[in-house]
Amino acid sequence: MYKNVCLIIMILALFSFSTCSKKETSTTEQNSPVANMPQGPIQTMPPGPIQSLPPDKTNNQGVMPPAVQMPPTAQQGMPMQKGKTQVIVPDIVRNKWSGAKIIVEDKLAKTKQEYTVKLNSDFKIPNTNLKIHVGEFLPDFRMEGFNLTSASNQPNNPALGVRIYENDKQVFPAAGKQWGWLFAKVPSIHAFSHPRYSIILKEGVSKS
Length: 208
Hints:
Blueprint: H1 2-31, H2 33-36, H3 74-77, E1 86-87, E2 97-106, E3 111-118, E4 121-124, E5 130-138, E6 141-144, E7 147-150, E8 159-166, E9 169-172, E10 180-183, E11 197-206
Parallel strand pairs: 1-7
Antiparallel strand pairs: 2-3, 2-11, 4-5, 5-8, 6-7, 8-9, 8-10
């Protein structure tokens, strides 16, 4: 009798333990993140480049700067006008100047020499192979279109027209040009270039 009672108690205990184990397993599965996920196929992102949202136009960040506009050249592709320049001596200047003073520098010998040259004449530079054909003197040089002239008779921008020859070959200005110009106040502009000699204009010589 005692053995039967013990057997019944053991069966009841095993049954109770089995029931508790099933409840704990069910509770664990319900609390699992995998169990809480919705059922159905997993959705993936469609292939292709990722598109970003357009930048906010009211915000300076993300706004592309405007394209730099290139300056026009020769009137939007039109060819530059070419023509032959001419020297025009106005009446207020004509016959008011007899010549000009020039300075010749020998860069090799490191010497400078001043000479007075007459207008519209040839001048051979002593002890050199250089010869200068002297043209007009414009005390207030101006360029108006293709006309080279003087705005006044005041020495505001003195310029002397010349052609320079070396061994009877024109070396200044370049071939095809009639006159080169020596400028007293800006001697470096369109200057006569030579490996040994430099020639600059000092001033004009007025008729007294």
